[in-house]
Design goal:
single chain; 341 residues; alpha/beta; Aspartate Aminotransferase, domain 2; Aspartate Aminotransferase, domain 1; four-stranded antiparallel sheet; 11 strands; globular
């Protein structure tokens, strides 16, 4: 049975998080002389360390309590802090499914944690039979599930994810960076029933804010308290918090942009299906398409020469390019270039 106390590092349980000046005074004042700030300028004050306004708006949109939300410096901070909170360096392990997002591996290595990479099946689904022994290993503290998955574009079967949540005594981090493009519902609705669940989302994809580096985690109160205790005090700037709030208050434009991307993706799939150099198009629930081509290295290089940049994933999935859905104009340039090859 899952027990949060058993998987949190001893030093993290004993840690007293940094208390900033903005934590100690709550309210509005006329004169602030508590944080050694410069009195001049428009960005001279420290940002809200608790991102209260952002969390309040997300709480309304996601139908969760503000206390169940962590705001990070991109979803990469959500990933990194999970290792710091739950994994003892040089001792504990984490697991993910390959091929997938590369930052799980990078963050594991930085934190001196072995990352077990279980190969996906031919249809890019989870092999539960191979996974079973790892679910029972005490050293495995984290399982990362990217769904929709990068670079494959598919969502994992709900039955597989539910089985993992119910049979693993560590934390399960479901990375939903691309969930807004998917027909599947977010696992945020499963938080109440799954105390070992963390949902990671980002503003870099469907929200179009990759430049501001803001991500979010959703979990039960105890887990979010751990994140808040470990994070740097001012991890998201005032500028970035304001940019997120502006977007969160522009839902109509968000939906317009998202639907344009989805429609453009459908057009690209049709165009790819008519190209002789494309041998397979993988189903995608994201804002990109994984395509198998006759020679990924050559085609990638030819596109680069025409100043069109895709992602060569040949080392992960043989002869495959991952192609982001761009604007209508960008997509047309891509198709015209591919037709000449």
């Amino acid at each position: 049975m899952f027990n949060l106390e058993k998987i949190v590092r001893t030093n993290i349980k004993a840690l007293n998080g940094y208390s900033s000046a903005r934590d100690e005074f709550k309210g509005v004042a006329e004169v602030y002389l508590d944080a050694n700030e410069n009195p001049f300028g428009t960005l001279n004050r420290y940002p809200d360390p608790k991102q209260i306004k952002v969390k309040k708006r997300l709480s309304e949109l996601k139908n969760v309590e503000s206390e169940q939300i962590f705001i990070g410096n991109g979803s990469d901070e959500v990933i990194d802090l999970a290792f710091r909170i739950f994994c003892e360096p040089g001792k504990d392990k984490a697991l993910t499914f390959s091929p997938t997002y590369g930052m799980y591996d990078v963050s594991a290595t930085i934190n001196n944690i072995e990352l077990i990479k279980q190969p996906l099946l031919a249809d890019f689904q989870i092999n539960l039979n191979q996974l079973q022994p790892y679910l029972e290993m005490d050293e495995v503290k984290l399982i990362f599930i990217c769904s929709p998955n990068n670079p494959t574009g598919n969502c994992f079967n709900d039955d597989s994810i539910t089985y993992i949540l119910e049979n693993f005594n560590g934390m399960v981090i479901i990375d939903e960076a691309y969930i807004d493009f998917s027909s599947r519902a977010s696992y945020i609705t499963k938080l109440e029933a799954s105390p070992n669940l963390i949902i990671s989302q980002t503003f870099s994809k469907a929200w179009g804010l990759a430049g501001v580096r803001v991500g979010a985690a959703y979990a039960n109160y105890e887990v979010i308290n751990l994140y808040n205790k470990v994070k740097p005090p001012y991890n998201v700037s005032t500028l970035n918090q304001n940019a997120v709030l502006e977007s969160l208050n522009s839902i109509a434009q968000f939906e317009i942009n998202k639907n344009i991307i989805i429609n453009e993706k459908e057009k690209l799939v049709k165009e790819f299906s008519n190209l002789k150099i494309v041998t397979k198009i993988y189903p995608s629930e994201a804002n990109f398409i994984l395509v198998e081509v006759t020679n990924a290295n050559t085609i990638y290089s030819n596109l680069v020469e025409q100043k069109i940049i895709t992602r060569n994933r040949n080392t992960l999935v043989a002869n495959c390019l991952r192609i982001t859905v761009g604007s209508a104009e960008e997509n047309t340039k891509l198709i015209n270039a591919l037709k000449q090859l």
